[in-house]
Amino acid sequence: MTFPSDLPVTTLTVFAALAALSVLTLTVTIFKMIQFRRLGVGGHRRGEEILEDWLNGRPDEAQRKAAAGRTVLARVLGAVMSGLRARPSEPGYGEELARQVALTELARMGARMRLLEAVVQMAPMLGLLGTVIGMIDAFGNLAVSQEAADPRLLASGIWTALTTTAAGLAIALVAYFIASWLEGRIEDERQTIELVISSAIHGRIAQPARA
């Protein structure tokens, strides 16, 4: 794909802005993947092991695993178990400690997500702006031209103008799918946190035996 060398400065600016948005999307995606890995997002197996030890009367082992665990669930379970052991008669205290840790973890997981949402909204508008500017320039040149209009030059200008909209939509779609995937992981972690806090305090519902 080649572009005319005499593009107006405004169109070049739009292309540069779209390129910056694509770089921003890639940067945020890499940052979030590294962050999720460091936070231990999705480490549900370790959380299940800690919860099983706690519910089966092995609180010391459960707390030891929670302290050594590097996952979100391990830190939340460590907080709720510490609260319950410190004040056995006040389960609300352990629940409150766990919720404070959970809110902190969820806030960290949600960091930079608004940047992706901004890309989803800005990229199509920038692309449309580039198209409008390109169309104005193409038809403006046609209006002031004293010679017979060359359909090929007009088509080239319109093609270049429409390219900005296509680029903006493509960037927005990629950012949307990435944001949806990341938000899905955060929501899954939030629901799992709610479940393990409740299970650690109130126990689990007995599963029916399979026939």
From TrEMBL:
Database matches in Pfam families: MotA_ExbB
Residues of the MotA/TolQ/ExbB proton channel domain: 89-194
Keywords tagged on the record: Cell membrane, Membrane, Protein transport, Transmembrane, Transmembrane helix, Transport
Residues annotated as transmembrane: 12-31, 115-136, 156-182
Statement: the UniProt record of this protein carries the keyword Phosphoprotein: no
Location in the cell: Cell membrane; Membrane
Membrane topology category: Multi-pass membrane protein
Keyword Transmembrane helix: yes
One term under GO cellular component: plasma membrane
Biological processes annotated in GO: protein import
PANTHER family (alphabetical): MOTA_TOLQ_EXBB PROTON CHANNEL DOMAIN-CONTAINING PROTEIN (PTHR30625:SF11), PROTEIN TOLQ (PTHR30625)
Family: Belongs to the exbB/tolQ family.
UniProt name for this protein: MotA/TolQ/ExbB proton channel family protein
